[in-house]
Amino acid sequence: MAQDPIPAQLGPYEIEVEEGKRYAWCRCGRSKKQPLCDGSHKDTGLKPLLFTAEKTETLYLCGCKDTGDEPFCDGSHLMM
């Protein structure tokens, strides 16, 4: 049985990513290493979103887990 994601925070996480490095964005909201996955999704039916950074840059990853543009913040937290 899948559980709903829970908002980790109502706003984006600013994160520095490195070109070519793989990341796992937490979809469940339970990770203690937000916005990245620490395996806390076990038994929730939710899995992290894996992505590879296209370039070294600062990204703003969703904290509310309600974005329509995973893993990026799209301002959905402003409607909560």
Structural description of this entry:
The chain is built from no helices and 4 strands. It has 80 residues and is mainly β. It is globular.
Short recap of the structure:
The protein is mainly β and 80 residues long. It has no helices and four strands. The model has no long low-confidence stretch (mean pLDDT 95).
Write the layout of secondary structure elements.
Blueprint: E1 13-17, E2 22-25, E3 49-52, E4 57-61
Antiparallel strand pairs: 1-4, 2-3
Oligomer: single chain
Helical coverage, percent range? under 10%
Output the helix-strand order. Answer: EEEE
Q: Please count the beta strands (DSSP E, at least 2 residues each).
A: 4
Number of helices: 0
- Please give the order of strands in the largest beta sheet: 1-4
Arithmetic mean of pLDDT: 95
The total number of structural domains is 1
Proportion of strand residues: 15-25%
Note the main sheet.
Answer: 2 strands, antiparallel
Gyration radius, rounded: 12 Å
Q: Which structural class fits the helix and strand makeup? A: mainly beta
Tell me, what's the shape? Answer: globular
Distance between the termini: 25 Å
